[in-house]
Amino acid sequence: MKKVLKAIAMLFVVAAVVFATGCGGKTGNMGNGAKENETQGNNDQLQPVNPEISANVTNNTTEANETIEKGQVVTKADSGKTISLKKGENFTISLREDPSAGYLWKLNLSSGLSILDDEYIEGLNPEHLEGVPGTHLWVIEATAPGSQKVNGIYKRTWENITGTEEKFTLNVEVE
């Protein structure tokens, strides 16, 4: 009888290890309906980051191992400021986001800017909790000279705009 109990206990341990290995360490994108007009990224190559710290961002439109030049990183603290770029240069916008609570950033870019990559990176989660906020990264290229603008609003997609939402604005002067 003791051998049978030991065998059952070993099976439980093996099953727990296999389950933990399959579930652990995953970061990722939200479901297909969570973001409007935004591409889903491949987060297998990304590590969780602090919004103030840069990360390797993989371009979804190129080969898996090719990375995009990110340029300068712009955060929420830079809202309302102006940056200068040359045509063809890139920059990255890095904003905290909590998609598990329904809060997402919706960006609108003027016609002289183009999103090259769009990634959500789940925040550090050592206790493997559900619903941990993370960082949303957009790599943006300056495609036309002149005064360009990025406007963002942070809200639940199903709620109406009330005017109390968090906003992000960036002016981009392109040579």
Automatic annotation (TrEMBL):
InterPro entries: Chagasin-like_sf, Cys_protease_inhibitor_I42, Prot_inh_I42_chagasin. Residues 85-172 form the Proteinase inhibitor I42 chagasin domain. Residues 28-51 are annotated as: Disordered. The keyword Cytoplasm does not apply. Residues 39-48 have a biased composition (Polar residues). Coiled coil: none annotated. The keyword Cell membrane does not apply. Keywords: Protease inhibitor, Thiol protease inhibitor. This is Proteinase inhibitor I42 chagasin domain-containing protein. The lineage of its organism: Archaea, Methanobacteriati, Methanobacteriota, Stenosarchaea group, Methanomicrobia.
